[in-house]
Amino acid sequence: MKKMQLTKRILINFIHLFFPRLCLLCRTPLIQEEKHICLDCLCDLPLTNFHTNENNPVFQLLTGKVDIVSATAWLHYEKGAKVQRLVHSFKYYNNKNIAYQLGRQMGLSLHSYIINQKIDCLIPVPLHKKRRRQRGYNQSEWICKGLASVIHIPVCTNGLQRKTASDTQTKKSLYARWTNVQQLFVLNDKQDLEGKHILLIDDVVTSGSTLGMCVKTLQEVSGIKISILALAAA
Ligand SMILES: [Zn+2]
Predict the structure, then answer these.
(1) Per-residue pLDDT tens for 120-160?
(2) Cα–ligand 1 centroid distance for 39 (angstroms)
(3) Do 228 and 58 meet the contact criterion of CB atoms below 8 Å apart?
(4) I need a surface site. Which of 85, 170, 201, 204 has the fewest CB within 10 A?
(5) Per the domain annotation, does 211 fall within a domain?
(6) What is the 86 CA–ligand 1 centroid distance (Å)?
(7) Number of domains in the chain
C-alpha cells in the first residue's frame, strides 16, 4: 500500500514538472503544499478584521431588521480585484475546491472568534434548485465544508431550503429586494434546530437581503440564536 502511495506521489511530481500547477491569482508555480493559491497571495488577501468590531458594517446591514447575535465577513470584495477573481472562479468556473480552500483559510484565520461563540452547527445559504443544478453544487456549502474541516462543527444542509428563484432580484431596488425574497426560504426540520446557535454561511454579502430572509425563516424555531459569517463583503 505504502509503495503504491509513493509511486503515485512520484508520478504526480513528474507530471507537475512538465505541467506545473499555477497560482490562480499570480500564475506562479505552486509548491506541493499549496492548493490553488500561493502562500504570498493568501497572505496578501484583503482581510476586513470586522470580527474585532461587534458593530461592523455587516452587522449594521442586518441589525434592526432581524435579530442576530453577531455578523461578520472575512474579506473585502472589490470589483476587478483578487477576491472577485476567486469568487468568480468558484461561482462560474466550476471550481468548488476553491470555495473549500477559502472556507478552510477563513476557519484558520477566525478560529478563536468562531469557537468562542459556541456555535452548534453551520448552515449554508441555500441555492435555488435550478441554480444548483446548473452549477452542480452550492458554493456556500463548500465554504462550509472547508470551514468545518478546521473548526469541527457539523454542517446542516437539510433544514433550510429555497422555495422560488430570485433571478430578477438584481434589477430591483433595495426595498423591493427585501420584500421580494420574503417567501424565498422554507424550514423542514424545526425541532432539530431548537435552542441551537446557528452560524449562517454566505459567499458574498451585498445588500444583506437574502441573509435577512434566511434569518427570518430560521427564527421560526424556538430558542434559536443566529450569527452570520460571509466569506466576503462588497
Ligand atoms: Zn499567487
Answers:
(1) 999 999 988 888 888 899 999 999 999 999 999 999 988 89
(2) 7
(3) yes
(4) 170
(5) yes
(6) 12
(7) 1
